[in-house]
Automatic annotation (TrEMBL):
A Pfam family the protein falls into: Epimerase
InterPro entries the record matches: Epimerase_deHydtase, NAD(P)-bd_dom_sf, NAD(P)_epim/dehydratase
UniProt-recorded name of the protein: L-threonine 3-dehydrogenase, mitochondrial
Similarity annotation: Belongs to the NAD(P)-dependent epimerase/dehydratase family.
Domain NAD-dependent epimerase/dehydratase: 59-294
SUPFAM superfamilies per UniProt: NAD(P)-binding Rossmann-fold domains
E.C. number(s) listed in UniProt: 1.1.1.103
GO MF term (any one): L-threonine 3-dehydrogenase activity
Top-level taxon of the source organism: Eukaryota
Pathway(s) served: Amino-acid degradation; L-threonine degradation via oxydo-reductase pathway; glycine from L-threonine: step 1/2
Amino acid sequence: MPLIRSVSKAARQLLLTPACGCEPLSRSVRNISALSRQVTSSDASFHSISFSETDHPKVLITGGLGQLGVGLATLLRKKFGNKNVILSDIRMPPSHVSRSGPFIYADILDYKNLREIVVNNRITWLVHYSALLSAVGEANVTLARDVNITGLHNILDICAQHGVRLFVPSTIGAFGPTSPRNPTPDLCIQRPRTIYGVSKVHAELMGEYYHHKYGLDFRCLRYPGIISADSQPGGGTTDYAVQIFHDAVKMGKFVCNLKADTRLPMMFIDDCLRATLEVLEAPAETLSMRTYNINAMSFTPEELVQEVQKQLPDLRVIYDVDPIRQAIADSWPMNFDDSNARKDWGWKHDYDLPELIQTMFSIISPDSRLTHAN
Ligand SMILES: NC(=O)c1ccc[n+]([C@@H]2O[C@H](COP(=O)([O-])OP(=O)(O)OC[C@H]3O[C@@H](n4cnc5c(N)ncnc54)[C@H](O)[C@@H]3O)[C@@H](O)[C@H]2O)c1
Ligand SMILES: C[C@@H](O)[C@H](N)C(=O)O
């Protein structure tokens, strides 16, 4: 069985080189042959991997041209070196992204191409950011199902077969109207009402199942709505909390598509990306779970407007509620309980609402423009 031999060799190397950050593969060596996707013996010799050449992980980020990927690549490249972090997406990278480090075309629905990229680049960590977000997903359920569920299956199989540590973000959207909403704990009823939420619960459960069954080193954080100054959100329900800063500065006017009293958990991007690196680096024995809530702040549009108006008192706000986004927001947590993340691997946010406002306005000046990754 050449596949078993090559995986056993990789497992031995992993055990000898813990600095690569990968968990022992003993369980996956026992179980990997049970993986549903058939791997031929010629594939198996192609898979032969060694992590002993480097102390740094070799990272692939899928869906890397969205709101979060470029920022994460910048953070990881500072720590692990430019050539060790590859951004990928199906869109054309803007020139500043191409110049900043390796970029590769990768469609997560193309299993063979994805596997080739992982193998040829000796990937040891994969951050799976490709997804259709909540509002865009409701507008195109079939595509959301393909990208968020079929795409995830490709990622899971490839990572399990090649001993790759896998990070998949989940979301406040993985909860639904029957979940406790204030606060929402890690373990409770999850019955989301969006294809986005359904696909994220599926990702959480499949990742945890592959961890237990095949030893996949799966790590998952449920992000709140993420607020960034220099990258554009990709079509979610929490997008208003980014847009308000730009519209306030450029136009002095903001049209809010959620009701004034809609409370949602939110986080500044720097906290989100640091949490991602921290959980990826956390020793496996500190992780009592594989899927954690992380939290920072929680506010309503009205509260955010009040804070923004302290900086720009002339800002005018109109509420023009989008019923689809409002129904989604009304089914999501108002506050997140992230006590397990704080206890297990020391999670601590840096940005509350005042620091967020100060930082956003220090980046977005009247002369600034949103950086469009597309
Ligand atoms: N931004 C947030 O507020 C937030 C909150 C919670 C969770 N998340 C999760 O974090 C991840 C990244 O979020 P984001 O805001 O950067 O998303 P985004 O929508 O901005 O970017 C997603 C990227 O996926 C890419 N993509 C789509 N189809 C693809 C395919 N077939 N193959 C490869 N790539 C494909 C898109 O081109 C896009 O660049 C997502 O999984 C999202 O669910 C984000
Ligand atoms: C919350 C998160 O998953 C995303 N920003 C959305 O609103 O869809």
